[in-house]
Write a structure and sequence with these properties.
transmembrane helix; mainly alpha; about 70% helix; transmembrane; 5 helices; single chain; Adenylate cyclase; elongated; membrane
């Protein structure tokens, strides 16, 4: 029974990695076609860098998932990275749009946290929820 659960979790990790990869592509396309609201002298744009780094991390996670080499520590680390990237990206909106910091609490993008939670429920271990 334990082996079957581990096999199911391995399959779930591949699904999770593909959903994350699709999300990165979706957000990159949306960012590319959306009008930018950056001040004229801005040298650093956080969103493209964040998406690029996260795309690399997600690619590495996908390869490890296909090879069945995702350790419990890496899965926990990945969960922390997922939530951190999401929260930092949402937080950076008020900088980009020169709005009060309360904007990120009002924005519907905060609901993306629930997507991360839903993806983590594909595992059968409460520690990764």
């Amino acid at each position: 029974m334990r082996r079957r659960i581990e096999q199911q979790q391995a399959k779930s990790e591949v699904i999770i990695a593909w959903v994350q990869a699709a999300a990165v592509v979706f957000f990159a396309v949306v960012y590319a076609i959306s009008p930018k609201a950056l001040p004229p002298k801005t040298r650093f744009e956080a969103v493209p860098w964040t998406l690029a780094i996260y795309a690399g991390f997600t690619s590495m996670r996908l390869v490890l998932a296909y090879h069945g080499r995702l350790s419990d520590r890496f899965v926990t680390f990945s969960t922390v990275i997922d939530v951190t990237v999401l929260i930092v990206t949402i937080w950076s909106f008020h900088l980009q749009y020169q709005a009060p910091p309360a904007l990120y609490l009002k924005a519907p993008t905060l609901m993306y946290v629930f997507i991360v939670i839903a993806l983590r429920t594909l595992r059968f271990e409460p520690a990764t929820y």
